[in-house]
């Protein structure tokens, strides 16, 4: 397990999936804002769940747990891993009861450690909706800088929203900033 100050990132366990599915995917607004594709109902236990599957090369899914108790609190993913350009994207989703406790900021820190130290990547990237203050702040607290606005790039529940593109280079990363 990878450890931060407050959270641990471990492998996805089979019994994490129904919890993540109910708390994150079945919340239509949360899923529409976070998943970047049209929401549709997915049968429990289906291989189509966004929390199932690991293509090993390009996408590494973690379950996020509270360090002290080991309780599942969310999902964290390094995705679109490109070993030629040595870059990857970060994705994060915490259960509603675990938000706003500093876990998101710490989970980004642990993903940076995984990306830069374990995988030897050079650049990490995050795209998030421009009104997602918690994600923007979690990224910026770890040294990510805003590189641009993708205007009207996300169709979310009946409207186009802007996304902010944030990037962090290995040489600018300060562990646990
Ligand atoms: C985005 C998310 C991962 C952030 O994790 P979190 O644990 O809630 O964030 P933290 O507690 O670490 O807070 C980070 C900062 O954002 C601020 N913040 C948190 N929630 C906020 C909110 N709803 N509105 C405004 N600011 C907020 C905190 O005060 C903190 O600011 P500080 O650094 O100045 O103290 C989490 O809220 C989440 O899973 N949201 C739903 C899914 C999602 O949006 N995923 C991202 C898709 S790109």
From TrEMBL:
Residues 7-162 form the N-acetyltransferase domain. Keywords: Transferase. The keyword NAD does not apply. GO terms for cellular component: cytoplasm. PROSITE patterns: GNAT (PS51186). Coiled coil: none annotated. SUPFAM superfamilies: Acyl-CoA N-acyltransferases (Nat) (SSF55729). GO terms for molecular function: protein N-terminal-serine acetyltransferase activity; protein-N-terminal-alanine acetyltransferase activity. It comes from the Bacteria. This is GNAT family N-acetyltransferase. The lineage of its organism: Bacteria, Bacillati, Actinomycetota, Actinomycetes, Kitasatosporales.
